Each structure stands twice: as structure tokens, then as C-alpha cells.
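Phage head-tail adaptor: structure, please.
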Amino acid sequence: MDIGKLKHRITIQKQVEGSGPTGQPILSWETVAITWAQVQGISGREFFASSTEQAGTTWKIIMRYIPGLKSSYRVLLDDQIFNINGILPNNDKTMITVMAETGVNNG
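Here you go.
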């Protein structure tokens, strides 16, 4: 992997549960890591859900290996939210390819 291609600064977050002032559960996102990555759109589609037209895009995000990364996490790039669908580490665990989607469920 050419490290020079890692030109996008991304934030990786996990969902955490806390409690509000009256004790009600509140879900929020906590930053796990901030790192450089290569972000590439690989496919897009439009579909109908709940009588509204929505657009979804599949992305490939390549970054250095992060131990413990889970598909329940999300990736942020600027104001865009990427929902992780799959995590594919390389054989020597130096890099990870993350398959993600935008436009469907923005966490």
C-alpha cells in the first residue's frame, strides 16, 4: 500500500449508552480513533423505502490496522457518516479495508 494515498482524515466512533439527567438512557457516539485513510466510492444506487426515494453509496476505506475495530462502529469524514458493513484486514495485519455505506442509515 502506498501510504501517500491515505489522504483523508477520518474519525472512527462507537456507540455508547449513558443516562440523562432524569436517568433515561441516551445513546451517543464516542471517538475511538482519528487516522488517515483512502476513501473511494465504488457503487451507488437509488431505492424506495417508506414511500420516499433514497440514495445509497458503497465505499471502500483503506487505513492502517486498528485492533478491535467492529462493524457496529461508524466512520466520519467531514460531515459524512459511513456505516461499516465489513472489515477485511490484510494477512500481516498492517492495513484494513473497510466496506461502508452512506445514505441509508446515518447512525
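Notes: The two ends are 30 Å apart (CA to CA).
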